[in-house]
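#structure-requests
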Amino acid sequence: MVLGAALLAGLLGSMATSVQAATVATVAWQLRVKDGEGRPLADTVVELSQPGVAAGTPRKTSVAQRNKTFVPYVTVVPTGSTVVFPNEDSVRHHVYSFSPAKTFEIPLYHGDSVPVVFDKQGVVVLGCNIHDSMLAYIVVSDAPWQAVSDASGVVKFDLPPGTYQLKLWHPRQQQPLPEQAIEVGSDAAVQTISLPVSAPKPVTTMDYSY
């Protein structure tokens, strides 16, 4: 009878632990990224990590070519992710990258592309061998949480309360910004951070007919 009671207590304890683990509360946390003059900064890669937390799960996504422009301009993916490059234009494109994190070429084509696996952490710069004005970036990240700021400079996460390491990257940042620790409390919160960037380059107006 004593053994039965002990066994029952153990089972109940295990069930309580499982229920508690399954119902860990998350908090709606937002980060607003601004440039050095206080304006919203879109296309900022935001990475959050914690010791002992595994990297994000690889996924499949796309970077399209539309109106002779890469869309989106900045993408972040977990290491090991697959990216396709659909050409939605009436002209052919030749997508390439010479970046150490991923070197590849997709020769002239229309429509769907072969998939490319991004298996090394780092920044990958994309270009088109036919249209020099086309430029985009893929950031390959080992961080468990990652996102790109929207037109308002905002990223949103649902996070368990705790301490995180925050890392930011932007194509026009003037210098690397050191990682910093942030605290996520038990209530929804919005934090703001400034990232000095250089002025955007003038938009190329050349009208390609090919």
